[in-house]
Specification:
Layout lengths: L3 E6 L5 H14 L4 E6 L11 H21 L3 E4 L7 H7 L4 E3 H12 L3 E5 L2 H14 L5 E6 L13 H16 L4 E4 L8 H8 L3 E3 H15 L31
Parallel strand pairs: 1-2, 1-3, 3-4, 5-6, 5-7, 7-8
Helix pairs in contact: 1-8, 4-8
Protein name: Allantoin racemase
Pfam family, one: Asp_Glu_race
GO molecular function, one term: amino-acid racemase activity
Length: 250
């Protein structure tokens, strides 16, 4: 079977978080898959709201363009808000998955109801918007916030990890669910341990996206270029955005 090269894009500038997600992705991926883990040099150190997502989107598109130029076969946007996902799908020849969408699909395959554990309360609202968009709102029992910022997952104190564990235990015993989704890419390394401890599926979107993307590539399926996800039209864009628009339609 053919080998595949997958680009894992961390949309924030945290190299530590990029490495955490890369380790998880490489653990999950088969021996036929090479993982390129990247993050932008400029942008926001963490993504915790709509403004952060808007700032990060240009960096995502630049990484898509660079990955396509390197011959990458597919891409993962490794932020639970799935920022810039549809724009990235327009730009890329290969398939592009967001970790929130991937996690929700996987959870729906192994449980009829699930809960999400995320970081700040404001991201609860964003997660609910995504549940509506992807058609999983009725299957989600609750979205819980540990009320700590994303970068607390990388501060070495262990407090964020402990709170994630506590909220997952609470969801298991009180939400009447069959699975739990970890609602931040920085939680990627917690899923296996929590699944074993809780004796139920605790799903990380990074691992879910790697597995689904590899399956799409094995099937020879990519993003449809018939319709609204066709390559962007070249309209003479100027400035930093122009570097992104080097597509076959140009």
């Amino acid at each position: 079977m053919r080998r595949h090269r997958i680009q894992l894009i961390n949309p924030n500038t945290s190299q530590a978080m990029t490495e955490t997600m890369a380790h998880t992705a490489r653990t999950i991926a088969s021996s036929r898959v090479e993982i390129d883990a990247v993050c932008p040099k400029e942008g926001v150190p963490s993504i915790e709201g709509h403004f952060d997502e808007a700032v990060a989107t240009l960096g995502i598109l630049q990484q898509i363009r660079e990955g396509e130029d390197r011959g990458v076969n597919g891409h993962i946007i490794a932020c639970f808000g799935d920022p810039g996902l549809l724009a990235a799908r327009e730009l890329a020849k290969g398939p592009v998955l967001g970790i929130a969408e991937a996690a929700m699909h996987v959870a729906s395959m192994v449980a009829t109801r699930f809960s999400i554990v995320t970081t700040l309360p404001r991201t609860v609202i964003i997660a609910r918007h995504l549940l509506h968009r992807y058609g999983f709102y009725e299957q989600c029992a609750a979205v819980h916030a540990i009320d700590l910022p994303v970068l607390s997952l990388e501060d070495g104190s262990g407090l964020a990890q402990q709170k994630v564990r506590e909220y997952c235990l609470n969801a298991k015993h009180n939400d009447n669910v069959g699975a739990i989704i970890l609602g931040c890419g920085g939680m990627a390394d917690l899923a296996a341990e929590l699944s074993e401890e809780l004796q139920m599926p605790v799903i990380d979107g990074v691992g879910a996206a790697v597995t689904l993307l590899e399956s799409l590539l094995n099937l020879g399926i990519t993003t449809s270029k018939w319709g609204d996800l066709d390559f962007p039209r070249n309209k003479g864009i100027t400035g930093p955005y122009a570097a992104c628009l080097n597509t076959p339609s140009s």
